[in-house]
């Protein structure tokens, strides 16, 4: 009843190929958009922005990117942290070199630079597959972090080796730097998330996405039916890295403001984003958001429960967090290898028949 | 001989010793991968956990004392006894066997027949879980592991080799611990190979590695073999944990050696025990030599962080199955 295709007639090709073909999904999408754009910016405060919403939005972009590569194209990458660092440093160099150009353009350009780097590191994927590739992407992770640590040009020879985001305005409001209001931080991230999600959604259901999925399911067979593996894999690496680069740029410029590369973009970050897409669901746009939300909310909730309610020391709670994350990942892989997105799919199937299941 | 050349040789020797330790971790990977097709990312954390447990047992720490204190408001930390090293090692080994059984029973039994990448991700989850449990049980502070292994440079080697160079050369500096590690690793490898070749369980293990279904059909219990290989990997992890723990203290960074073992495996091939050893030696020597000749003078140092991966990456582009790996044959 609630969720049904029946009665939703499509009489034109435009109708037939719209992004959300089912009425309920469309309604859901517009409601979400309305709440996100028109309600939250007015009620948001510093705490909610800095501990939940902004990291959620930024990680959602990274998860979307990794999901394109791993979930849709089947190439496991452990270099996400390194590519985020590329985005952050590219954004920093652009911001300091061209202070008059809008930050929005810088973020997109940073994504573009990351895409080029990602495609270069994606080249070995033509010969290396599976685990071997996963390990090969570790080379990107460690090499890039080392590079940004050692080459002083990247951090403009600052004494601390850190990069600090200078203040930049969009339409007269600061979006980076210490004077940024919470709602501006939130809105700029939301802007990029919306854009990225729409692009990702439409890429993955178009011919590009189908090629990726063909490569994922069996690359030799895909090659035989006429998918060019070189192009498919490299576009996947490039698009994925673009998203990851944008998220890295926002993570640095908008969220943290000051970054030390080994700490902010270490191997832990790669695993975190990988966990997001495993828990959320491989090969699902919704799953990227669900996974990002889950792994952003969980530590905050656990900390609240452990430290504020039970009064335990923080390090103990941090250890528990490791145990719970690990256990959850194993649990999900055993019970639901397709993640939260699959659970949502089951709910939708139930809703389709509700309240008259047969 | 010039001093530079001699220092170069010293770097190579130290690289070989480091390589032995990498190979030790890589060995644990190969054992599990051959028998069950699981690429066990948690191997490094297993080494950390084993080392933590060993120090905990030796110093008579109360497991989960932190947690118990937080819940009940008590102040307990130690039982107040000290367990001798050998007994503690045996107890730790028992813990690792129980762990192996639990992993098989509660996780991988339910994941039989899944895609390799799913299994790999499950082991990443396992790694987090085990790290958290290790911290909860024994606390996360850096611990000293002292099981009576010799420490420091070997005077004997220095004196014996000092004649090779001029007045400014004092002989090769080689850590005694590294020498012990090399001997232990050699014994371990010989022992494992002998086990695999000459015992009934070892044969069964090889049969499972060859073909699961054929092994099942002749009456080999897959479950038992998998518990066995996880236990063996636990043993290897314990040895690696002792060596690394004695070298640099028992702390979280111990689990990162697992990452170092990955390029070793890529170089040697995932399915080959000799490959793990040769790969370990190549990586150990390669990264030390690169740091000594190019990294430190020209690139600002710390190239050891990434050299192994890049070497493996370049190598793989030319030979995707590694040095000794089985040839990859793809069919549609």
Description of the molecule:
The complex is a heterodimer of chains A (358) and B (332). By secondary structure, chain A is mainly α. Chain A has a domain at 40-263. Helix content of chain A is 72%, strand content 2%. Chain A contains 15 helices and 4 strands. Chain A has helices at 13-16, 23-43, 46-72, 80-97, 103-122, 131-150, 182-205, 207-217, 219-224, 229-256, 261-264, 267-280, 285-309, 314-335, 339-353; strands at residues 163-164, 169-170, 173-174, 258-259. Chain A has a two-stranded antiparallel ribbon. A two-stranded antiparallel ribbon of chain A has the order 2-3. In chain A, strand 2 (169-170) and strand 3 (173-174) form a beta hairpin. The longest helix of chain A has 28 residues, at 229-256. Chain A is globular, with a radius of gyration of 21 Å. Chain B is an all-alpha fold and 332 residues long. Chain B has a single domain (3-318), classed as ABC transporter involved in vitamin B12 uptake, BtuC (Orthogonal Bundle). Chain B has helices spanning 3-36, 43-58, 65-72, 85-106, 116-138, 155-161, 176-198, 200-210, 212-217, 222-248, 257-268, 273-298, 304-318. The mean pLDDT of chain B is 80. Chain B contains 13 helices and no strands. In chain B, 45% of the residues are buried. Classes of the chains: A mainly alpha (358), B mainly alpha (332). The interface between A and B is large, with 49 and 50 residues.
Briefly note the structural class of the backbone of chain B.
Answer: mainly alpha
In the CATH hierarchy, the architecture of chain B is Orthogonal Bundle
Whole-number count of domains of chain B:
1
Report the sheet-strand fraction of chain B.
under 5%
What fraction of the residues of chain A are assigned to beta strands by DSSP?
under 5%
Number of helices of chain B: 13
CATH topology of chain B: ABC transporter involved in vitamin B12 uptake, BtuC
Q: How many DSSP E strands of chain A?
A: 4
Uncertain residue ranges of chain B: none
Strand order of the largest sheet of chain A: 1-4
Q: Biggest β-sheet of chain A: count, sense, barrel?
A: 2 strands, antiparallel
Summed up, the helix count of chain A is 15
What about the largest sheet of chain B? none
Inertia-based shape of chain A: globular
Distance between the first and last residues' Cα of chain B:
58 Å
Largest interchain contact: A-B, 49 and 50 residues
- CATH top level of chain B is Mainly Alpha
Q: For the CA atoms, what is the radius of gyration of chain A?
A: 21 Å
Output the radius of gyration of chain B. Answer: 21 Å
């Amino acid at each position: 009843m609630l969720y049904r295709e029946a009665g939703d007639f499509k009489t034109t090709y435009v109708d037939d190929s719209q992004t959300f073909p089912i009425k309920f999904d469309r309604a859901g999408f517009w409601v979400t958009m309305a709440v996100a754009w028109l309600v939250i910016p007015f009620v948001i405060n510093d705490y909610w922005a800095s501990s939940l919403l902004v990291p959620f939005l930024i990680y959602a972009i990274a998860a979307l990117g990794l999901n394109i590569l791993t979930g849709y194209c089947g190439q496991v990458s452990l270099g996400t942290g390194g590519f985020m660092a590329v985005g952050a440093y590219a954004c920093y160099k652009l911001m300091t070199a061209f202070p008059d150009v809008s930050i929005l353009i810088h973020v997109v350009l940073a994504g573009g630079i990351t895409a080029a780097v990602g495609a270069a590191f994606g080249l070995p994927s033509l010969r290396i597959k599976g685990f071997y590739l996963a390990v090969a992407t570790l080379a990107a992770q460690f090499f890039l972090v080392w590079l940004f640590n050692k080459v002083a040009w990247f951090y403009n020879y600052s004494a601390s080796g850190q990069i600090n985001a200078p203040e930049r305005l969009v339409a007269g409001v600061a979006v980076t730097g210490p004077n940024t209001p919470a709602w501006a931080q939130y809105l700029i991230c939301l802007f990029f998330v919306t854009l990225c999600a729409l692009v990702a959604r439409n890429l993955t259901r178009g011919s590009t996405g189908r090629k990726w999925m063909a490569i994922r399911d069996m690359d030799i067979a895909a090659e035989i039916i006429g998918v060019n593996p070189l192009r498919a894999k490299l576009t996947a690496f490039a698009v994925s890295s673009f998203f990851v680069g944008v998220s890295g740029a926002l993570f640095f410029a908008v969220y943290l403001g000051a970054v030390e590369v080994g700490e902010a973009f270490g191997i832990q970050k790669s695993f975190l984003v990988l966990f997001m897409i495993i828990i959320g669901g491989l090969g699902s746009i919704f799953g990227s958001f669900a996974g990002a939300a889950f792994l952003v909310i969980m530590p905050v909730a656990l900390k609240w429960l452990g430290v504020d309610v039970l009064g335990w020391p923080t390090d103990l709670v941090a250890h528990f967090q490791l145990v719970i994350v690990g256990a959850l990942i194993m649990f999900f892989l055993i019970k639901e290898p397709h993640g939260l997105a699959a659970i949502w799919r089951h709910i939708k199937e139930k809703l389709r028949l509700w309240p008259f299941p047969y | 001989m010039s001093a530079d050349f001699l220092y170069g040789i010293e770097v190579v020797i130290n690289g070989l010793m480091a390589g032995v330790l990498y190979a030790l971790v890589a060995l644990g990977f190969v054992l599990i991968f051959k028998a069950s097709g699981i690429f066990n990312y948690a191997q490094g954390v297993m080494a950390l956990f084993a080392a933590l447990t060993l120090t905990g047992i030796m110093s008579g720490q109360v497991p989960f004392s932190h947690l118990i204190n937080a819940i009940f408001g008590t102040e307990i930390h130690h039982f107040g006894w000290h367990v001798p090293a050998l007994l503690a090692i045996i107890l730790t080994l028992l813990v690792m066997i129980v762990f192996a059984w639990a992993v098989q029973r509660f996780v991988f039994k339910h994941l039989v027949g899944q895609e390799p990448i799913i299994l790999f991700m499950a082991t990443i989850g396992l790694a987090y879980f085990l790290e958290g449990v290790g911290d909860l049980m024994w606390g996360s502070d850096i611990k000293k592991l002292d099981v009576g292994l010799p420490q420091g440079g070997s005077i004997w080697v220095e004196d014996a080799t000092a004649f090779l160079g001029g007045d400014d050369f004092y002989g090769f500096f080689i850590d005694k611990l590294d020498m012990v590690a090399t001997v232990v690793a050699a014994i371990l490898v010989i022992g494992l190979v002998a086990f695999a070749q000459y015992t009934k369980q070892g044969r069964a293990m090889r049969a499972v590695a060859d073909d699961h279904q054929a092994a099942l059909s002749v009456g080999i219990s897959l479950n038992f073999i998998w518990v066995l290989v996880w236990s063996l990997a636990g043993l290897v992890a314990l040895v690696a944990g002792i060596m690394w723990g004695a070298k640099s203290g028992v702390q979280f960074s111990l689990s990162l050696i697992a990452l170092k073992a990955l390029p070793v495996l890529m170089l040697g091939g995932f399915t080959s025990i000799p490959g793990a050893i040769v790969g370990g030696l190549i990586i150990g020597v390669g990264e030390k030599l690169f740091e000594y000749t190019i990294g430190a003078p020209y690139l600002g140092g710390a190239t050891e962080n990434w050299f192994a991966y890049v070497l493996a990456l370049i190598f793989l582009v030319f030979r995707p199955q590694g040095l000794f790996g089985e040839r990859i044959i793809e069919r549609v």
